[in-house]
Amino acid sequence: MTEPFDVVTGGAGFIGSHLAETLLARGRRVCVVDNFSTGRRAILPKGVELVEGDVNDVAADAFRGASVVYHLAALPSVPRSVKQPLECHHATARGTLAALAAAEQGGVKRLVFASSSSVYGDTPTLPKHERMPPKPLSPYAAAKLAGEFYAKSWAERGKLETVSCRFFNVYGPRQDPDSPYAAVIPIFLRKLREGKKMTVYGDGGQTRDFTFVADVVEGLIRAGSAPGVSGRVYNLAGGRPVSVLDMGKELARLSGKPADFEFLPPRAGDIRDSFADVAAAGKDLGFTAAVPLEEGFRRTFGWIASIARKSPHS
């Protein structure tokens, strides 16, 4: 590759595929790096150039000559990381280290790292802001925090511009409802589709900052080009707390089904409340969440309904 291009690691994943698609629509040349451990070929946008493999192994060749690397590759899910801590470290922490080293060697100007709100832990202070001391409760959160520190070290040495973006409960079309580690919104929609009770871990009063995927993509792209932000960390979120029960009730209303819940004990590594202060991203990146929660839920429900209609078992 000789012309300027952008790289999206994890580009066959839920968020990565939306990011790659948006970059293509804006006239960018895009290379996706993915080993398909959790990514899906079916959602790869048409027009991307694919490098198949683990980012730990292929980054050195894939990144050479890129303008911006958006590093989203990881092994997602807090519960999965508790069960598979070594695999989580390899994919998430070591993979980020490999990406940073390859970006520096390949002459990349900036790497944008996809971090997570899980690094905050279960702190009582709300909303969560970037100046708070992190208190990770799971291997996944610890691996994401390690990635942030690695990224900052590159920025401080002046070897590579880096920006870390903390995601808060991203949802939207293409989020796999059938994965054993699926996020809560696609799980609830699948349960509603099947006429089953929605499973809640805890009492359902825990709050989350549900953020539509298109808003996160816009924040990432802004982080890839904003001046004077290297070495910094930003929350990308809607900035509005919603309880799990209220979210389930709204999804049930959209689906025309009763809001029935099954309550189970809380899971290890889960936090009680989380929502973001997004003032820093607004000031430095010009970021604001543009998709209202109700509209995002409607779009997501529409997508789930459309794939259900295509399934021979629906």
Outline the structure in words.
It is a single chain. The chain has a seven-stranded parallel beta sheet with strand order 3-2-1-4-5-6-11, sandwiched between helices. The protein is globular and about 55 Å long. It has helices at 14-25, 55-62, 78-83, 85-105, 139-156, 184-194, 213-225, 244-255, 279-285, 293-310; strands at 6-9, 30-34, 49-52, 68-71, 110-116, 161-167, 170-171, 198-201, 207-208, 211-212, 232-236, 242-243, 261-264. α5 links the parallel β5 (110-116) and β6. The protein folds into two domains: 6-168 and 213-236, Rossmann fold (3-Layer(aba) Sandwich); 171-208 and 240-275 and 291-310, UDP-galactose 4-epimerase, domain 1 (Alpha-Beta Complex). The longest helix has 21 residues, at 85-105. With 314 residues, it is an alpha/beta fold.
Which features does this protein show?
40% helix; seven-stranded parallel β-sheet; two-stranded parallel sheet; 10 helices; Rossmann fold; alpha/beta; 13 strands; UDP-galactose 4-epimerase, domain 1
What's the layout of helices and strands?
Elements: E1 6-9, H1 14-25, E2 30-34, E3 49-52, H2 55-62, E4 68-71, H3 78-83, H4 85-105, E5 110-116, H5 139-156, E6 161-167, E7 170-171, H6 184-194, E8 198-201, E9 207-208, E10 211-212, H7 213-225, E11 232-236, E12 242-243, H8 244-255, E13 261-264, H9 279-285, H10 293-310
Parallel strand pairs: 1-2, 1-4, 2-3, 4-5, 5-6, 6-11, 7-10, 8-13
Antiparallel strand pairs: 9-12
Helix pairs in contact: 1-7, 2-4, 4-5, 6-8, 6-10, 8-10
Work out the helix count. Answer: 10
Helix amount: 40-55%
Give the DSSP E fraction (strand runs of 2 or more residues).
15-25%
CATH architecture of the largest domain: 3-Layer(aba) Sandwich
Q: Structural class per helix/strand content?
A: alpha/beta
Shape: globular
Side-by-side strand order of the widest sheet: 3-2-1-4-5-6-11
CATH 4th-level superfamily of the largest domain: NAD(P)-binding Rossmann-like Domain
What characterizes the major β-sheet?
A: 7 strands, parallel
Radius of gyration: 19 Å
The CATH class of the largest domain, by name, is Alpha Beta
Count the beta strands: 13
What is the string of helix and strand elements?
EHEEHEHHEHEEHEEEHEEHEHH
Terminal CA distance reads 43 Å
Q: State mean pLDDT (0 to 100 scale).
A: 93
Kindly give the count of domains: 2
- Unreliable stretches (pLDDT < 50, length at least 5) are none
The CATH topology of the largest domain corresponds to Rossmann fold
